[in-house]
Q: What sequence folds into this?
């Protein structure tokens, strides 16, 4: 087969290219230039492109750079900013997978005559008895990325390969080392790829430069002001730190954000618990699913049993609130490793 | 996959070394070597090679041998022209220099002009600066104006005589005129075309010399402050031991380029015309970016192709062995709409399918036949994939389940 390998310059996609080649495929590596902004330390920096190209050279495969920076800005960065403005908690990796890696790139690969696209994600694809395909968790539980891939539809899955999904991270690094790939000991990428710098401050600076950040009052359940935060846009439901509450008292969590009024309400952990979450933007769109599911609310969160009824997911046991904008991914209770689909938590009252 | 037999249509990016240049280079590298700044016989030998090369190049440009400053390529020469004149002016007058350049200059000119807070002169839809309206964009006390002789991307040629006259009239002869002639030298006799300019840039690898070698022609009365300080080579205008081998090869390439220019221009224009006509006969929606070929250098075919994304077309062409170029490449190697097309008023939709094919002295009839066939196949493939794509991936946008 002719396989296009999306090479980020990291160890997983380096080994992906090597494995595709070893499997006898005709392999071409591509690196996506996604972000033209000032962050040159993220996923598409010149240094990472260099790494990808040198790995491709070492393997003896062609390497190209595709420029998706306009689409990335339109489909990932701008919605990320808009979501924060609206007080939502966006996941830009999911939007990038949805719009770029498993849509625009995939379409392009097929148009250019490739049979499949391989990426370095830790996930697997299973073919069921009826011939349909499903996404499955990666073999390395700690590195599993199925949560951020839930939106991939069957048609795309049919021409997608995740060769490192069967391996644990240690094996990936060991293979890279054996092959002498320069990325063997490169650290894993962290955080949002288009925001450079140290974690919390970097996000605040990135957003502050692009959208207005508004200060907010922090109230307790009785309505007393207990603190202030500089930017309501950076506050997430369930958040515990960085609320300016001082120490001493029992831990308090953000249980409500009134964006319009500029008010953050904190409460006890019990106040965070809820029976239901209302969802929107179900994906993949060709699949409809109702009934019992295992629902996971973050990349490495614990899946919880629930029942999906229309747009409403009802937890079997009261569960911590899901921040609006966050994705909820459904796994099959009969095959808990397999992804059925996912959706996004709607804004409260939506 | 290694693309088999190459059809090289990217001569404006770089081209093969001329056999005459290669012979000169090899002969020079094989000889015992001296430093041209030294005094012993080997040093004097190197000095002589440098002086001979200087004579040949001066002849090709119609200037004195002492007017040439050898550099490590076109970018350094462009930087030296803009920043070197600006700094010399500033040192003399004590005020901030005023510089200007056209909007379609190479970044090697644009960036220094930006750094000096200079003026960017708009171009017309063909990418040329209009001598009639040039004055509107220039202050009377402008110090330097830089306008390229021929554009590297779309191939249009500026009327340097008219532009130089307009600059002189508007600034009372005060402003110096620099021209980046990197893309022009294979096609234009600059002794006439650039007769009135004060500074001129060449880059050896664009006419059959080596990469990393170039020159700046500076007329004797032009104030210029060196950018590289050191041993004072090149009459204190550019320090550093000269790349003698590269310069000797550049001179050999320039000599043969100038000697064969008329014949090459005729022959290559014929190849270019057959290529573009061939594409247009066999494909709908192929538009020449500058329709009037008389405005362009002979080797340039720049087209906007409907219904394809140039990045995808480049990929398929490359897989079939055809080397072409979509736009100026950036550091990471990705392609984005060029500043040249933007300055010409070409919208992003049209520019999305922009491709540059550039022919050179080594191009052949066979190149044309093969390139037309491969390009037509690639465009058809992308167009049909596109119609399949839009049908196949049509779906409600993220509808609720």
A:
């Amino acid at each position: 087969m002719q396989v296009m390998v999306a090479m980020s310059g990291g160890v997983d996609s380096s080994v992906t290219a090597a494995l595709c080649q070893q499997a006898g495929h005709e392999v071409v590596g591509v690196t996506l230039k996604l972000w033209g902004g000032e962050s040159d330390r993220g996923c598409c920096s010149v240094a990472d492109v260099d790494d990808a190209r040198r790995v491709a050279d070492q393997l003896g495969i062609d390497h190209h750079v595709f420029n998706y920076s306009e689409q990335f800005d339109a489909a990932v960065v701008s919605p990320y900013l808009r979501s924060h403005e609206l007080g939502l908690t966006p996941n830009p990796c999911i939007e990038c997978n949805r719009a770029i890696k498993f849509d625009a790139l995939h379409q392009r690969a097929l148009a250019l005559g490739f049979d499949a696209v391989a990426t370095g994600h830790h996930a697997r694809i299973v073919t069921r008895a009826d011939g349909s395909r499903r996404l499955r968790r990666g073999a390395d539980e700690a590195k599993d990325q199925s949560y951020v891939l839930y939106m991939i539809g069957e048609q795309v899955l049919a021409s997608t390969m995740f060769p490192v999904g069967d391996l644990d991270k240690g094996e990936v690094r060991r293979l890279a080392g054996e092959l002498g790939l320069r990325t063997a000991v490169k650290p894993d990428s962290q955080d949002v790829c288009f925001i450079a710098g140290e974690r919390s401050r970097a996000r605040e600076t990135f957003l502050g430069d692009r959208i207005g950040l508004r200060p907010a009052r922090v109230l307790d359940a009785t309505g007393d002001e207990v603190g202030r935060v500089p930017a309501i846009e950076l506050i997430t439901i369930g958040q515990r730190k960085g609320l300016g509450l001082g120490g001493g008292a029992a831990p308090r969590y953000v249980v409500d954000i009134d964006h319009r009024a500029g008010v953050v309400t904190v409460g006890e952990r019990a106040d965070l618990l809820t029976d239901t979450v209302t969802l929107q933007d179900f994906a993949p769109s060709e699949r409809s699913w109702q009934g019992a599911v295992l629902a996971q609310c973050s990349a490495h969160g614990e899946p919880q049993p629930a029942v999906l009824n229309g747009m409403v997911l009802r937890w079997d046991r009261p569960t911590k609130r899901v921040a609006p904008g966050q994705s909820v991914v459904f796994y099959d209770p009969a095959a808990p490793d397999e992804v059925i689909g996912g959706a996004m938590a709607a804004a409260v009252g939506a | 996959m290694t693309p088999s037999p190459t059809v090289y249509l990217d001569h404006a990016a770089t081209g093969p070394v001329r056999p005459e240049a290669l012979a000169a280079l090899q002969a020079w590298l094989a000889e015992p070597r001296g430093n041209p700044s030294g005094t012993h016989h080997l040093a004097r030998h190197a000095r002589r090679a440098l002086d001979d090369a200087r004579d040949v190049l001066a002849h090709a440009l119609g200037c004195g041998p002492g007017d040439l400053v050898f550099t490590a390529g076109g970018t350094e020469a462009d930087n030296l022209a803009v920043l070197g004149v600006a700094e010399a002016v500033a040192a003399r007058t004590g005020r901030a220099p005023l510089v200007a350049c056209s909007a379609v200059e190479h970044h090697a000119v644009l960036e220094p002009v930006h750094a000096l807070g200079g003026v960017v002169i708009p171009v017309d839809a063909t990418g040329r600066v209009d001598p009639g309206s040039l004055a509107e964009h220039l202050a009377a006390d402008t110090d330097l104006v830089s306008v390229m002789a021929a554009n590297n991307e779309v191939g249009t040629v500026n009327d340097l005589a008219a532009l130089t006259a307009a600059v002189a009239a508007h600034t009372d002869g005060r402003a110096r005129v620099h021209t980046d002639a990197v893309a022009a030298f294979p096609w234009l006799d600059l002794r006439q075309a650039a007769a009135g300019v004060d500074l001129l840039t060449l880059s050896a690898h664009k006419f059959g010399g080596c990469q990393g070698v170039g020159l700046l022609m500076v007329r004797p009365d032009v104030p210029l402050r060196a950018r590289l300080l050191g041993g004072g080579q090149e009459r204190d205008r550019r320090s550093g031991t000269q790349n003698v081998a590269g310069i000797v090869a550049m001179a050999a390439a320039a000599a043969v380029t100038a000697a064969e220019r008329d014949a090459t221009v005729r022959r290559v224009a014929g190849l270019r015309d057959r290529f573009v006509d061939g594409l247009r006969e066999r494909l709908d929606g192929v538009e020449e970016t500058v329709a009037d070929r008389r405005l362009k250098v002979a080797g340039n075919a720049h087209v906007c192709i409907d219904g394809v994304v140039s990045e995808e077309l480049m990929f398929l062409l490359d897989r079939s062995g055809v080397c072409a170029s979509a736009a100026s490449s950036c550091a990471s190697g990705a392609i984005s709409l060029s500043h040249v097309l933007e300055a010409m008023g070409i919208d992003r939709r049209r520019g999305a399918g922009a491709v540059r094919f550039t022919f050179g002295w080594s191009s052949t009839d066979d190149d044309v036949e093969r390139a037309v066939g491969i390009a037509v196949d690639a465009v058809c493939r992308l167009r049909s994939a596109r119609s399949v794509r839009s049908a196949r991936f049509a779906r409600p946008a993220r509808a609720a389940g």
